[in-house]
Structure formats: structure tokens, C-alpha cells
Amino acid sequence: GENVEQHPSTLSVQEGDSAVIKCTYSDSASNYFPWYKQELGKRPQLIIDIRSNVGEKKDQRIAVTLNKTAKHFSLHITETQPEDSAVYFCAANPYSSASKIIFGSGTRLSIRP
Amino acid sequence: EAGVAQSPRYKIIEKRQSVAFWCNPISGHATLYWYQQILGQGPKLLIQFQNNGVVDDSQLPKDRFSAERLKGVDSTLKIQPAKLEDSAVYLCASSQNTDTQYFGPGTRLTVL
Question: Chain B, 33-62: which have a CB under 8 Å from a chain A CB?
């Protein structure tokens, strides 16, 4: 079945710097890759997603890149702000169940003032 | 548009007791998911419903967990009897005819 690995598990960056979180997946037929942000004690919220027919997608300060050949995708946050502090989860859908997603283990991002 | 609703928000029980969680998805969303999120980990899918039918329950510990979605709207997840390792946040999510899943606030279960 699909396996999603996420690195690093924790990340601390200076406010204003960029943060990058990387994920790999195992199912070459996966075609949907969402990213969720979860603040402490709150629900996961979708921040951006990408489908396999594109290589990059941007939304203001966040962007996601996808390398289908290498089976990895990354989240990039530029000009980080204190409110970016949270746990970020990547996910991918196994082809066998298009609406199901498998989550990575999460990255705890801390923004230093 | 109202989001996914869950209740209760918190529950503390002793091991071997039973507990039930309730979820009301976003109106019109045919697909409903229950996830278990243990502290420090990503959500793990327990069961997926399409309308009132089960699509995937391969990760549901069926000896103690059960779930139903009568009439294809609300859903309940039950644990009987609970074990210490069931302490987690139980998240409900729903989706329409797309991949995007919207999560509820979750129920934090503590088993003593």
C-alpha cells in the first residue's frame, strides 16, 4: 500500500526566512498531494494541494513542487511569520482508492522572532 | 457554510468502558471519514463511508471499534471496551465529489 515519509520532523527558522518540508511517496499511481496545517489543539486545515498533471503550484507565500519521477513533493514557505508556527502534514492518495489519503508523520515548524 | 461538527470535544473514561463519538458532515458531502490521531503522529484512517455504505474499514480494529452512518448523513464511532492505547484525538472529515477533505474539531479521548 501507499507509504508517505516526511522530513524533517522538527524545523526551526528565523522569522522572515524560508522553510522547506519534503515528502516521498511509494505508489507511482498517486495523483493527488494535499498539505495540511494543524495548530495546537485545532483541526487540520488544507493549505494547498497539487495534482500530478502540474509540477508546481503557488498561493501567496506558500508553494508546492512535485517530482513524479523521483516520487517526492515539497512545501515551501517564504517570508515566514510567527503565525506559520504549526505542525504541517503532507499526504498522498493511493491509486486503489482515489478519495482516500495517507498522511505523513508531520513536521513541527517553529518560527523564531 | 457550516463546517464538520463533532461531539463531545473531550471525553475521559476508564479502561474497559465504552464510548461513542458523533459526527455531522458538511451538508451535501457524500463521503465521511473517521481518523485516529495519536499525539505526535499524522491522522490514520479508521473507516470511510460513501453515503451509508462502507468503502474502506481495513484499519478499523473490528474487535472493539464499530461505526455506522445511518441515512447517509450523521455518523457515530463506538469503542467497546476501551484500552489505554485508544487515547487519541478522533477526527471526522467529509468530502464532496472531490479529493479535498474538510476536518471537524475532533474529540480528545483519554483512557485511564
Answer: 40-45, 48, 55-56
The strand pair at B10-13 and B107-111 is best described as parallel
Contact residues on chain B for A6, CB-CB shorter than 8 A: 42
pLDDT tens, chain B, 112 aa long:
579 999 999 999 999 999 999 999 999 999 999 999 999 899 999 999 998 899 999 999 999 999 999 888 999 999 999 999 999 999 999 998 767 899 999 999 999 9
Rounded to the nearest angstrom, the gap between the alpha carbon of residue A65 and the centroid of all alpha carbons in its chain is 10
Distance CA A101, CA B35 (A): 11
Rounded CA-CA distance A1/A23 in Å is 16
Per-residue DSSP letter, B26:
P
Q: Does A7 touch chain B (CB under 8 A)?
A: no
Name which of B109, B54, B73, B65 is nearest A100 in CA terms.
Answer: B54
- Nearest CB to B91: which of A43, A97, A101? A43
Are B41 and A105 a contacting pair at CB < 8 A?
Answer: yes
